[in-house]
Amino acid sequence: MPTPLELSTRERETALTHLRLLPGELCAAVAGLSNAQLDTPYREGGWTVRQVVHHVAESHMNAFVRVKLALTEENPVIKPYEEDLWANLPDHQLPPEGSLTLVDALHARLLPVLEGVTDWSRPWTHPAQGRTYTLDSLLALYAWHGRHHVAHITGLRGRQGW
């Protein structure tokens, strides 16, 4: 998903709202699922619901660190990570509750930081992509990211009649 380098005030508020809502939406998306359902891929060859929940927590932890780096350093180069390899580590077999709690607590910390940003053009560089982004880009990306993965789960639930 291409992310804009500059958001309008309205787009920024909409993205912040999406981030505020994500913990509850993610929790609701997996509520009542059995272990067998949590271990169902959301599409053929895709991650399981359980892996998706853990991925959202990990990805948004990285977002939090990236925001703080961008606010405290001049154009920091962030550390990329191998999402698919992380998704196959043993902790991705744990119950989702730990990651749901983590997303909730993380967003409780992330949102006040983002709400205090005065310069959304602050840059950060992704070395694997060879591209410089802004805090606006990061905000847009992670607001989309949470909705994207909740839709994977809710779409699967709808298709399966769960």
TrEMBL record:
The keyword Hydrolase applies. Residues 23-153 form the DinB-like domain. Keywords: Hydrolase. The keyword Hydrolase applies. GO terms for molecular function: hydrolase activity. SUPFAM superfamilies: DinB/YfiT-like putative metalloenzymes. This is Metal-dependent hydrolase. It holds the Pfam family DinB_2. InterPro entries: DinB-like, DinB/YfiT-like. It comes from the Bacteria.
